[in-house]
Design goal:
Blueprint: H1 2-37, H2 40-48, H3 67-72, H4 77-88, H5 107-113, E1 123-127, E2 130-134, E3 145-146, H6 152-155, H7 163-176, H8 193-199, E4 203-204, E5 213-214, H9 220-224, H10 231-244, H11 251-255, H12 261-267, E6 271-272
Parallel strand pairs: 3-4, 5-6
Antiparallel strand pairs: 1-2
Amino acid sequence: MISTRLTKNIISFIIVLLIITFFCIYKPSTEKKIISQNSPKNSIKKTENINESVNFTHKINPNIATFDELKSIGFSSKQAYNCLNFVKSGGVFKKSEDIKKLYTISKSDFERIIPYISIPITIKKISNSTVAEISPKQIKTISTINLNTSDTTILKSLPKIGSFRAKKIVEYREKLGGFYSYNQLYKIYSFDSTVVNTIQKYCRIDTSEIQKININTVTFKVLENHPLISYYQAKDILNYKKIVGTIGNIKELADNNIINKTDYEILKYYIKTF
């Protein structure tokens, strides 16, 4: 009888011990899981990604978008204000990738927002001192711009030409007297094949507008300062003039080997005899 009671007590003790052990092992794990689910870190992450749930149904141009429109495509309030301030201060988004100019836009934000940005490509047409914006479909109908007479305002209407490049075109044109070939643009700083090939679609070169030098009246200093005429060429031309008195025709210089035929084909655009 005693043996049976002792056995029951031992079994009861073991059962209680197992129950206590079970709770000691599994209860902290459960509490940890609950705390993790409700931690501030996860709450912040959920808040930060709230814009990702926006249902995008349209594209916008950030150059003219309102605060609400920017928000509707996934901008946070801070990003929307940053964008509006950028435009208000004179900034312009020329292409969708320019959104990355905003310091509040991270790489992940950019990749998320870019599908919903649309910036139409435009070019300005200058006619009778007026400026009008036209769409890309109308570009082919634009009157070509004369590189030898257009001022910086007109030149800036060309794609890839801003204030800096327009100024450089005019400066080099004034030194030359005018352009006879698009290849001369490569002599200008920052002009490469991409720029030259793009703008010549909308330009023309009228060589009759080139300001020529009269070699019968010019001084040595003026002639030698021309970008395409070397010191020795200027000296030979004026020495020849002293011999003949008056140069009647530019071709005389090539016929008498004063300049070679290759140089003649270029200099004929820049010198004259009357």
